[in-house]
Amino acid sequence: MRITVGNLAKEHGLSRSTLLYYDTIGLLSPCSHQKGEYRVYGTAEQERLKLICLYRKAGIALKDIKRILDNEETNVNTCLIARFKQLDRDIMELKEQQEIIANMLQNPSLLSSSMPMTRELWTKILKSSGLTEKMMRNWHVQFEKAAPNEHLAFLKFLQISEKEIETIRKW
Q1: Which one, of 128, 129, 155, 130, lies nearest residue 141 by Cα?
Q2: Last residue of a domain, one of 15, 49, 71
Q3: Which residues sit opposite 32 in a β-bridge?
Q4: Closest to 27 (Cα-Cα) out of 73, 4, 60, 75
Q5: How many whole angstroms separate alpha carbon 168 and alpha carbon 147?
Q6: Domain assignment present for 88
């Protein structure tokens, strides 16, 4: 099945100029040109565009998408894991920005509306599961040993103060 550049763009919610740009950078080229210089895309190009759109929705850069699609030796999982880790860093930065703004507004309750899990709720869940204070402390010790960065991120997620976080991590 062959389709023109305009129809292919519409089908994927893209602009015609986006597909022309993809052609310019060698990411997606038409299989042929019809009379009047209409670009025509076949089934293979349409499938490639589906993948391009999927990778773009995941936030993968165009240069990396090109590498993934053009080079069998490129490890897709490595690219996706790198993107996932970048998203984690971005989320942490955004949460820090929220905290700064809430502090500037002198309204810490804003944080609880954007992050439903709090220290109090987490502690209540652990206690209702039968964990004692000693067991919860040991849980933190083991978490810190196994994954210190993730433990820090979790403590921040629970909206624990920097001073308390320092104390918990010293355990």
Answers
A1: 155
A2: 71
A3: 40
A4: 60
A5: 14
A6: yes
List Cα–Cα distances, 131 to 136, 139, 145, in angstroms.
6, 9, 19
**Residue pLDDT, tens place only, 66-116:** 999 998 777 888 899 999 999 988 988 988 898 899 889 998 778 766 656
Residue with tokens 């103060």: 161
Q: For the chain, how far is it from start to end, CA to CA, in angstroms?
A: 65
Residue 112 lies in a domain: no
pLDDT digits (tens, 9 = 90+) for 116-151: 677 888 888 889 889 999 999 999 999 999 999 999
In this structure, the answer to whether residues 99 and 44 fall within a common structural domain is no
Global pTM exceeds 0.85 = no
> How far lies 161's CA from each of 72, 74, 155, 158, 166, in Å?
47, 42, 9, 9, 9
